[in-house]
Amino acid sequence: TERLEEERRLREEMQRELQGSLQVLGGRVEDADARMNKALQRLSAAQAALQEQCADLAVQTEVARREQASSLMGVKSKKESSPEALEQLRQSLAGMELRLDGRCAM
């Protein structure tokens, strides 16, 4: 019976140690979960800011496109507009669109 008593005592001690380890582990999981939630909130805020910047860039690009087109047409009549000037305008606008797409691709 002494042996059985010793085994029971060891089992109880192991259960207490296991319970303590599980509590510590549970606390660590809660801490990690809280840190992850904070990181997700920061990521969400950064994503919203990036989307806002992309919208601003889209507006700025469209305004610049219209200003360039209207200034070119305002300075030169259709007869005076050279194919080279029109090609240069087209390339400039294409470059702006590429830069915008590169920044705002989701």
UniProtKB/TrEMBL annotation:
Keywords attached to this entry: Coiled coil
Coiled-coil regions, chain positions: 4-60
Domain of life of the native organism: Eukaryota
Protein name: Uncharacterized protein
Phylogenetic lineage: Eukaryota, Sar, Alveolata, Dinophyceae, Gonyaulacales
